[in-house]
Input
Amino acid sequence: MLKRLIVPYQFVITVRLGIKSLLLHKLRSSLTMLGIIFGVCSVIAMLAIGEGASYEAQEAIKKLGSNNILIRSLKPPEQARQQGMGGPRGMQLKYGLTYADSGRLMTTIPGVVRLLPMRIIRENVRFAQNEVPCQVIGTLPFYPEVGGAEVVRGRFLAPMDEQHQENVCVITTGLARRLFPIQDPLEHSVRIDTFYYRVIGIIQERSQPEQRTQAGKMEGQPLDNNVYIPLSTSRTRFGEILIRRSAGSFEAEEVQLHQITVQMRDTAAVETADPQIKTLLGRFHDQNDYEIIVPLQLLRQAEQTKRIFSIVLGSIAAISLLVGGIGIMNIMLATVTERTREIGIRRALGAKRSDITLQFLVETVVLSVGGGLIGVMVGILVPILVSSLTTMKTIVTPWSVLLAFSISGAVGIIFGLYPAKAAAKLDPIEALRHE
Amino acid sequence: MPMQAQAGQPAPVPPPPPGDNSIIRLERIEKTYFLGGENIVRALAGVDLSIEEGSFVAIMGPSGSGKSTMLNILGCLDRPTAGRYWLGGEDVSRMSDDELSEARGRRIGFIFQSYNLIAQLTVIENIQVPLFYRGVDLKATYDRCVELARLVGLGDRLHHRPTQLSGGQQQRVAVARSLVNDPLMILADEPTGNLDSRTGAEVLDLISRLNEAGKTIILVTHDDKVAARAHRVVRMKDGLVDQDIDQLPPAARSGGNGRGASC
Output
């Protein structure tokens, strides 16, 4: 057997013989192959879909910046809220991050480069007949560097705007398209609530615009309708108390800052700062009215999730390969019985047991590797089809193709060994007498 | 028709002295089948037989006489329970399974009653099978295989499948296949059993011609007419050689075949 494995010429003949024998039963062979094709195809396709899904999640997290820690104001849990509502009329709800928090973070936490406070107010923005619901974000001039936005036209807010509480604003590209279908937005004024703000620049958020609009369509409200104004302007124009009117009642809440992005020196500083921030804020907030988001941790979690996801998908696919392998074994056992006579003839003509083993093993491997090859091709096509028909992103990694293909080869050897051994074990006399 | 009958002389034939030209020597070969429990069948009960190179021997006997077991032992398909079997100077009875396979491939050419060609292979490929298992370069020996196919009269059907051939043609492919490794002997098991009398006679003629060219032929049959072509008839009974008769070949036949086979 070894000799025939080493001599390529002999091996080629054995392989050719295997193919010939398989072609004798085309339907049977192709049905058997189908099991492996599905198995290999599902391994590749599932891993590609899993990889694509986690890629999207990771990209989203990366957008937040791995050196950043995000602290967001949260409306306190239901209990506290009801307490506020149940109080005397006009009682307002006070929660969230404060300017004092911001100052404390800056002075206490080591490794902080800078803090970016944000006030986020939902208001309609108007220009001429156009009215678009927006997030009006009061922030500081260095927002683009921390938040990862790119100034497309004009400029972002300047320190002077902040100092003078100017009525200027910067709008996102998406909003610019909606508010100013024809005109150039620069130097026009938009109206928010009762005040007018001069548009001084247009920025592009870091995320892909197509994706955002798609996500927006689903929610009925585009996500990238943002208007940036100086923080000081936001404080004076909107005040600290935000009143939301709804049918028959109103709700007042006092939120100083909606979000603070803490930019750290490096990722190591992020690790140490996370518990420190928790302790610091915990000391000054008697209710749980904020959340701390560490993109770095999220990223790790996403990677962990992806790993589990890949393992689960991979095992499902591996099981289908296993089933395919059992199918192959089943057919090969039937083939051995059917070709007992041939085995006897070959043994009489000088074939050793190992020659018979090799012959049937090669046949099984040809079957499984052939199925594997077709499976790889289909497996690469399926994710392409999926991404073109849906918005799902898929990534076919070379290692998944390699993995699936080598598993198919291994399946052939593992499941072919028993029938091949069974064939070799036949007594030549009995085999010749068969039928 | 002169015939040297030795009907009175019982087996065993006295073992020939070493250095004689016998290529097959069976010494007290026994084969016992244990069918479980007390059930024991003694298929061969100590057979002594020696066959010289170039002879044409017919082995006959009723069913149950040990004829088939004898064929299996002679063909190296089975090992005797006791005794020794010398094939071309080698003790086959003590060989391992792999060595037996090799002995079958190199020293014995099989012709079976039901032809036993491999269905998915063509004529020429069927002839090549013994060469393949010997590890011979099939390209280098291709011409020889074609020549063998011509010899048996199938030079124009090299790439036909067995199912596209008649029984006589298939058996002739088997004859060519048995010759391809230039074996010490050709072991034919009822080679004409599945053929009509005319094609059977043709195949038999072919086998006789091979013998005339120097091949040792052992033919297992129960047909007296077939056995009549042999030079020696060994009759088996109850696991022993019952009769061992030398007979001269029919003179008419030897005159009609001047050509001879060149294998």
